[in-house]
Every structure is written in structure tokens, then in C-alpha cells.
């Protein structure tokens, strides 16, 4: 009540000005509301900053959802802090609260992005958050990038551990003279795709050694040498790409804007 | 289709881009961030930032520039110079760089390569090699071209690749700043020895030079002087290279 009182008083004194102020505040609130909130999962590897920067550029608000594993052991800076803390009880307490924090982060987001630079061995960090992630993916748009796409499959030749198993297939090492497959590649888009809408010359930046070969949900293909691999998947509200849209210049930003639009559409329906 | 890459290189000293000749006689070329933006708009495929003061003075590479670049540039970029430990690398990568390049530290402690590769993936590790011709072949130099290690450059490239490097950034010290073409023999020797992408550097003077180093097997060509001095532009170079039958992203 205390905070309302001055505005009320001003409203009575100068009704026109107060009306304008209210209108402006309303517009600001409206803008904030239309900016979709996208949670980026930080599982202790990978370039989170680039993905966040690119999504913000495309009109989204980003929040970082740190997995419990990323909070405790895999972050180099946090590891130092953890060893200093000898109190086991305190660590245990931190563990449960960090898991809850992660779930809460996904809860308040309109969409989820699983970025990826790293190795499939990160799957062990992902398997711990499997339940809240799968629950959120059922309701909200999801976008996997590079390793984030590979983690949607159950296993990989790269390392042990099981991924999310949403798609059928295996992640295999590319058969190509030079690995990693780094650089810009043209891709061929199959059928109509929401993600690639409005992209005339689909050339994107790739950086990987493993890839998926043949999947029913393929929406785009590319080649490394003579090795054809899947570079985009779409299944309902779940999207994934093998390349790095956050590093693919104007094309990449267009693709991410398309995803942000999808998120806006989905959150309106909800 | 696979495109060959054109990579402008920004040698940075205190936030300013500098260009030397054979690693000496530095001249200022402009503000790092604005030059980076300009090249990005012109269609550069990637960028490389080398903090040339860092290794020599033992200072760790500044992360502020990295953060700013990551906020405004949406193509891959590599940051190098003064990275000595896994923690240094982690700091740069967490600030938004896609790759780090290590030179002196990798020569002195080769196990740093697998250490970083294991944590961040091979694609994040670029091993930079400064090579100078000698009687037998090429020798590896460290500390910004100041110390001759006597290590054979081709053998070192092969070893770096087997240790988990994702790319090799090969600079010919003899050709650097001369504008008279890349060291083709060096590039093709390294290309044959190491099965990872090669970024050739040092000596680019014209589109013809770039074409010949691509034909020698390099995957990317690093350019500095000819772009900084406005002798040509990236779109013009790309057009010329593409007309020679080499796939370019335009």
C-alpha cells in the first residue's frame, strides 16, 4: 500500500500526467512479457556465453540453468571453492538445493536450449537431470545445438554414458580425412521447416567429429567429405541442429529468431 | 559443400590492433573491436585475436575484450596469447571465445593440449606454431618468435595433432609481413603430416597467394596486413578466390 500511495496522490493532482506514466509502465511490462524467457542449460562444458548473446540479440531473455553437476565439480572455478569447504553436511545441503534451483529454472522458462561444445562424456551430467528435463520438454519448445543434439540420442561412439534417448539412432564418428569437421558447409533442407524459414542460402558453421547418420526426423542433411550426416531434426516442439547457429553469422541469427518466434507462439497457446 | 575459410587476424596490444614485419617493427592498425566488427560485416569466416604482449610479459590475456567481442560478433573466434594453464584457457572460453590458441605453453608442456581438449573438446584447441626455415627444414620458435627451440615444426605439428589439437595455426616467420606469398612447402609438409585442419599464416599478399595455399591443402588462410592496410577487402578477395574454382562462402 505504501508504494501505491504516492502514485495515487499524483494521479489525483495531475490526472493527465499520471495516465501517461501508467501507459508507459504498461507498455514496458508488455514488452517484457512478449520477450520469451529461454533457459540455457549449463552442464559444465561448452560455450554458454555465445548462445546467450545470440539469443538475446534475437529478442529473447535468457536465464542460465546450471545443472547440479556443473555447480559442484565440473566448473573449474567452483571446484576450488568446493575443496575449501570441508563441511560435508553443508555440501549435501547445497546439492539438494541446487537440484531444486535447476528444476525451478526450467519451470519459469518458456523454452529450453541445450547448447554443446564438449564431449559425449557430459551425458553423465545430463542423466542426473533427466526427469525434470524430460518433463519440461513435453510442455515447452526445446532446441539442441551440436552436442546438445547428440545428447538427444541414447548413446555415442565417443564415450560411454546414455543420453536422453528421445530419438532413435546412434551417434557415430565421421568418416572423413580431417577431423574435427570444422568450417562452413552448405546444407540441404528436406521438406518444409519452421526453423529454416526465410533462409535463402543455407550455409552454417560446423565444428564436430561425431554425427548422426539417418534418422526418421531429419529435416536437413550435410556432408563431411563423402560422409552424409544429419544436421537438423524436428519433432513436434523439439528442434536440434548439428551446426552452431550462434556462430553462423546472419543465417544463424535468422534461424535463432525463427526459434524465438516459435517460442512466442507456443507460450501464447499455453 | 565445404568452404575454405578466410580468417582476418588481429594482433592486439592494449586493445589496439598492431601489425609487424617478421614479428618486429609494430605499427598500429586500429581499435580491435571496431576492426573485428568491420571484418565480420564484410563476410569473414572466422576471427583470430592474438594478444602479442601477453606471452612476452607473462601477463594473462585480458578477458574483457573477449566478452565484448562475444556480445557483438556472431562468427567463431579464437583468442590466443599468454595462455599458460587450463585455468587461463577456461577463463577465455567461459567469456565466450570458441577456441583458444596456445603456442609457447604447448611446446613447454605438451600435456596441456590433451588437458584442455578433454575438458572443452579438441575443436577448442588451436595449436599455433611459429616456424622459421633452417638448414634441415623448419624450426619452432616460442615467446613471440624470440626463442629458437630447435624442434622440427612438421614433427611438432604431427605430435600436437596426436595429442588432441583441433587445428593448427601455422605461421611462417620468414614470410610474415612480406606480402610475397605463404610458405607453400611448409604448409603442404604440415598438411601431409597432421590430419587436422590447417590455418596457414604469414605472407598473404594477393588472392593468388591464397589460392595457392588452399591448393597446397590448407583449410583456412589467415590474413592481416593486406586487410589492415585496406589494400583489398574480404568480398573482393573471396570473389577472386572463388573465380579460381575454390569454394568460398559469400
Tally of domains of chain B:
1
Give the N-terminus to C-terminus distance of chain A in angstroms.
Answer: 32 Å
Compute the CA-based radius of gyration of chain B: 16 Å
Strand arrangement within the widest β-sheet of chain A reads: 2-1-3-4-13-12-11-8
Shape designation of chain A: globular
- Helix content bin of chain B: 25-40%
| Uncertain stretches of 5 or more adjacent residues of chain B | none
Strand content of chain A: 15-25%
Oligomer classification: heterodimer
How many strand segments of chain A? Answer: 13
Largest two-chain interface:
A-B, 38 and 38 residues
Reported by name, the CATH topology of chain B is TIM Barrel
CATH superfamily of the domain at 20-168 and 236-269 in chain A: Class I glutamine amidotransferase (GATase) domain
Number of strands of chain B: 12
| Strand neighbour order, sheet with most strands of chain B | 1-4-5-6-7-10-11-12
Describe the structure.
The complex is a heterodimer of chains A (270) and B (250). By secondary structure, chain A is an alpha/beta fold. Chain A has a domain at 20-168 and 236-269: Class I glutamine amidotransferase (GATase) domain (Rossmann fold). Chain A contains ten helices and 13 strands. The longest helix of chain A has 21 residues, at 88-108. Chain A is globular. Chain B has 250 residues and is α/β, with parallel strands linked by helices. Chain B has one domain: TIM Barrel (Alpha-Beta Barrel), CATH 3.20.20.70. In chain B, 38% of the residues lie in helices and 28% in strands. Chain B is built from eleven helices and twelve strands. Chain B has helices spanning 32-42, 52-57, 63-72, 86-94, 104-108, 112-120, 153-163, 184-193, 207-215, 225-228, 234-243; strands at residues 5-13, 16-21, 24-31, 47-51, 77-80, 99-102, 125-133, 138-142, 147-152, 167-172, 198-201, 220-223. In chain B, helix 1 (32-42) runs parallel beside helix 3 (63-72), helix 7 (153-163) runs parallel beside helix 8 and helix 9 (207-215) crosses helix 11 (234-243). The longest helix of chain B is centred in the first third of the chain and has 11 residues, at 32-42. Chain A binds chain B through residues 45-50, 53-54, 57, 76-77, 117-119, 177-180, 182-186, 203, 205, 207-209, 223-225, 244, 246-249, 252-253, and chain B through 1-5, 40, 43, 45, 67, 70-71, 74-76, 86-87, 90, 93-98, 118-124, 166-167, 195-197, 219-220, 249.
